[in-house]
Specification:
The chain is of the alpha/beta class. The protein has two domains: 208 residues, Rossmann fold (3-Layer(aba) Sandwich); 174 residues, Rossmann fold (3-Layer(aba) Sandwich), CATH 3.40.50.300. It contains 15 helices and 14 strands. The longest helix has 15 residues. It is globular, with a radius of gyration of 23 Å. The two termini are 38 Å apart. The C terminus is likely disordered. The structure holds adenosine monophosphate.
C-alpha cells in the first residue's frame, strides 16, 4: 500500500517522500486508517516495524486538516527513555518537515536552560510533546502545563514503561488529560497488566497485532557456549576476525559494560560505552558518533535495546543472556532493521544456560551453537536441561564434555544502505543538555 492511497495530506506526503518511505509497512497499513477514523488503538508491534510513523502520520494529518488550539498541547506521546523521546521527535521533524506542526522532546538529564525551553513550550502551547514520564511529572507539578486540550495520547513501548515502574506516573499524567481524546497504545508484548491498562485507558479500541514476539527472520542467530572468563577474549576474537563497521554489545549490568568497554579500548578497538551513569551530554555524543560512523562498537546496557533506530548494525552481541525472551528479541532486533539482514551472537555461560533454553523455547527453535576455537581451551557443553535437573537435587553436575559443534552461517553479513540520513532540522528543539547525571526519567 502506498501512502497516497491512505489519503494523507500533500505536505505530509512530501515529508514521507523526503524520508525515503515508498510503501507503508504492515503496521502502518493496518494502523493509519483506524487512527484517521478516530478509533482508539491497542497495537502490539515490534520495534523496527515502522510503528513510529504509524502513529505520527495520522496524528500530523489530523492536525493539518482538523481544527486545534495553537495555544495548547494537542498530542502527547509518552515513552520510556530519553533516547526514544529524541528519536521520535526527530522522526516527527522529518515527516512533518513541510508542515507547520511543532514538536518538542521533554526528557530528563538536561540543564536549567532545557527545562526553561520545555517550560515555555508546555505553558504557551506546542502541537506535539514527546516526553518521558518523570520529566513530565516534574513540569506538571509546577502547574503551568496546558494539557486541557490534548486530543491525542500515545503510549509507546507501554510494556517497557510498566516494567520500569512508571504505572503511577502514567496514571498521574493521564489524570490531567481531557476524558474525550483519542488514545493509542503500542506495546511489544501484551501481558495481562497491559490488558488492564488498556481497559482503563481505551474506548472500544481497534486491536492490531503485528508482532508474534518473534525476531525478524533475516537475523542470523548464533551463540557461543562458554565459561564466564572466556567471554571477553572470545568477543575480542570475534571482533578482530571480521570487518564489522557497526556493532552493539549488550550487557545486563553497568559494571560489565564498563569493564568490557575498557578491555576493548585496551585492545585498540573503536569502542565507547553507554549506560545510565553517563552524563546526558556524553550519552548523546556517543550515540551521535555511532550514527555518524566515527565509532564502530557500542557497549550498552538495555537502555538501547528498545526503540532505538540506528541503521545498518551488522552485529549484535549479547555479552550475557538477557533476563527474558522479550529483552532478547529487542536486543537482537537492533540489527536487521526494516528488512535488512544482520547477525546476533549470544555468549552463554554455564549459569545462563537455563535462561537461554527458555529463550529458545520462546523462539520455537534452537539457536546455532558455534564451536569455541581450540586455543580458548575447553568449553562447557550445552546441557541446560541436565543443569536444571541437577539443581533440583540429584547432585550430578553436568559434564564438561566437548560439545558437538553446530556452526551457523557466516556472521559477516552486510546490510544494504537504507533510509534518509539527512534529517531535516528540528523546528522546536529543547536547549542542549549539559552535564547532569540522572537515571532514566
Ligand atoms: P520504527 O519501528 O518506527 O523504529 O522504524 C524502524 C525504521 O524503519 C526507521 O528507520 C524508519 O525510518 C523506517 N521506516 C518506517 N516506515 C518506513 C517505510 N514505510 N518505508 C521504509 N522505511 C520505513
Amino acid at each position: 500500500m502506498n501512502f497516497r492511497e491512505l489519503g494523507l495530506a500533500e505536505k505530509l506526503l512530501e515529508g514521507i517522500d523526503a524520508m525515503g518511505y515508498e510503501t507503508a509497512t504492515p503496521v502502518q497499513a493496518q494502523v493509519i486508517q483506524p487512527i484517521l477514523e478516530g478509533r482508539d488503538i491497542i497495537a502490539s508491534a515490534q520495534t523496527g516495524t515502522g510503528k513510529t510513523a504509524a502513529f505520527l502520520l495520522p496524528i500530523i494529518h489530523k492536525m493539518l486538516t482538523q481544527p486545534h488550539s495553537a495555544h495548547h498541547i494537542n498530542a502527547l506521546i509518552i515513552v520510556p527513555t530519553r533516547e526514544l523521546a529524541i528519536q521520535i521527535s526527530e522522526t516527527m521533524e522529518g515527516l512533518g518537515y513541510f508542515t507547520d506542526v511543532s514538536c518538542i522532546a521533554v526528557y530528563g538529564g538536561g540543564d536549567g536552560s532545557s527545562f526553561t525551553t520545555e517550560k515555555k513550550a508546555l505553558s504557551t502551547g506546542v502541537d506535539m510533546v514527546v516526553c518521558t514520564p518523570g520529566r513530565m511529572i516534574a513540569h506538571l507539578n509546577m502547574g503551568y502545563v496546558k494539557m486541557q486540550e490534548v486530543q491525542y495520547l500515545v503510549l509507546d513501548e507501554a510494556d517497557r514503561m510498566l516494567d520500569m515502574g512508571f504505572h503511577d506516573d502514567l496514571m498521574k499524567i493521564i489524570s490531567f488529560l481531557p476524558k474525550k481524546r483519542q488514545s493509542l497504545l503500542f506495546s511489544a508484548t501484551m501481558p495481562q497488566k497491559m490488558r488492564e491498562l488498556a481497559r482503563k485507558l481505551l474506548n472500544n479500541p481497534a486491536e492490531i497485532n503485528i508482532a508474534v514476539s518473534k525476531p525478524p527472520e533475516q537475523i542470523l542467530q548464533q551463540a557461543y557456549v562458554v565459561y564466564e572468563p572466556q567471554k571477553i577474549p572470545l568477543i575480542k576474537y570475534v571482533l578482530s576476525n571480521q570487518t564489522y563497521t557497526r556493532v552493539i554489545i549488550f550487557c545486563s549490568k553497568k559494571q560489565n559494560v564498563k569493564q568490557l568497554a575498557s578491555e576493548l579500548k585496551r585492545a585498540k578497538l573503536s569502542v565507547e560505552e553507554i549506560h545510565s551513569d553517563l552524563l546526558q551530554d556524553k550519552r548523546e555524543q556517543v550515540l551521535q558518533d555511532f550514527r555518524n560512523r566515527k565509532l564502530k562498537i557500542l557497549v550498552a546496557t538495555d537502555i538501547l535495546s528498545r526503540g532505538i533506530d540506528i541503521e545498518e548494525i551488522e552485529l549484535v552481541i549479547n555479552y550475557d543472556v538477557p533476563n527474558d525472551g522479550e529483552d532478547y528479541i529487542h536486543r537482537i532486533g537492533r540489527t536487521a532493521r526494516a528488512a535488512t539482514s544482520g547477525t546476533a551472537i549470544t555468549f552463554i555461560s554455564e549459569a545462563e544456560q537455563k535462561k537461554f533454553l527458555q529463550i529458545e523455547e520462546l523462539l520455537g527453535k534452537a539457536v546455532d551453537k558455534l564451536p569455541v576455537p581450540e586455543n580458548f581451551g575447553p568449553a562447557p557443553a550445552y546441557t541446560p536441561k541436565a543443569r536444571f535437573e541437577s539443581k533440583r537435587g540429584n547432585g550430578n553436575r553436568p559434564t564438561n564434555k566437548p560439545r558437538q559443534s553446530q556452526t551457523g552461517g557466516n556472521p559477516n553479513r552486510n546490510n544494504p544502505n537504507r533510509g534518509n540520513q539527512n534529517r531535516p532540522i528540528q523546528k522546536y528543539k529543547a536547549a542542549p543538555n549539559n552535564n547532569k547525571k540522572t537515571g532514566e526519567d
